[in-house]
């Protein structure tokens, strides 16, 4: 049955003009883009969104990167959306992706372990949390908390 996942084109993907290509891949792969909003994230939002990484040494750099420009946040719908979106984006490290998953989105537009162009929820539980973090549900669907 239908499943929703949370996807984001990160600042390097947006500034690198990959948005159109990524959205075409999403549609061609059978996902519905049921919500999409361009937002500039602030530090507090990034720190809360990535709270599970807050003790990691890369966290300050992650916050700097994720606030460096606008991102496109999306809700994608499809059967098995969470796992299938993770397959489509490829490994976290874009340098690895270029070698092991050359047709993945991160191979196409990512740079390295940090600047990896796109995000995808890592589990159905994460998807529920991440969608609720950015979008509110209304009777007619979702609306963004950020526009
Ligand atoms: P994402 O899948 O969005 O989840 C957390 C993000 O933190 C990840 O993509 C990368 O952008 C970044 N990240 C994860 N691990 C590292 C690392 N070891 N060094 C730098 N950045 C990282």
Automatic annotation (TrEMBL):
Keywords: ATP-binding, Cytoplasm, Kinase, Magnesium, Metal-binding, Nucleotide metabolism, Nucleotide-binding, Signal, Transferase. The keyword Disulfide bond does not apply. ATP binds at residues 10, 58, 86, 92, 106, 116. Residues 2-141 form the Nucleoside diphosphate kinase-like domain. GO terms for molecular function: ATP binding; metal ion binding; nucleoside diphosphate kinase activity. GO terms for biological process: nucleotide metabolic process. Its EC number is 2.7.4.6. The active site is at 119 (pros-phosphohistidine intermediate). It catalyses: a 2'-deoxyribonucleoside 5'-diphosphate + ATP = a 2'-deoxyribonucleoside 5'-triphosphate + ADP; a ribonucleoside 5'-diphosphate + ATP = a ribonucleoside 5'-triphosphate + ADP. Belongs to the NDK family. Major role in the synthesis of nucleoside triphosphates other than ATP. The ATP gamma phosphate is transferred to the NDP beta phosphate via a ping-pong mechanism, using a phosphorylated active-site intermediate. This is Nucleoside diphosphate kinase. It comes from Cinchona calisaya. The chain holds residues 34 to 180 of 182 of the full protein.
């Amino acid at each position: 049955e239908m499943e929703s996942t949370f996807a984001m084109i990160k600042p390097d993907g947006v500034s690198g003009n990959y948005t159109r290509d990524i959205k075409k891949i999403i549609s061609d792969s059978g996902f519905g883009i049921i919500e999409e909003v361009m937002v500039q994230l602030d530090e507090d939002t990034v720190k809360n969104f990535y709270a599970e990484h807050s003790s990691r040494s890369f966290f300050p750099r992650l916050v700097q990167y994720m606030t460096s420009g606008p991102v496109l946040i999306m809700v994608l719908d499809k059967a098995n959306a969470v796992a299938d979106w993770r397959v489509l984006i490829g490994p976290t490290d874009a340098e690895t992706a270029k070698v092991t998953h050359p047709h993945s989105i991160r191979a196409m537009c990512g740079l390295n372990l940090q600047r990896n162009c796109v995000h995808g929820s890592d589990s159905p539980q994460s998807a529920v949390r991440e969608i609720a973090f950015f979008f509110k549900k209304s009777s007619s669907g979702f609306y963004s908390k950020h526009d």
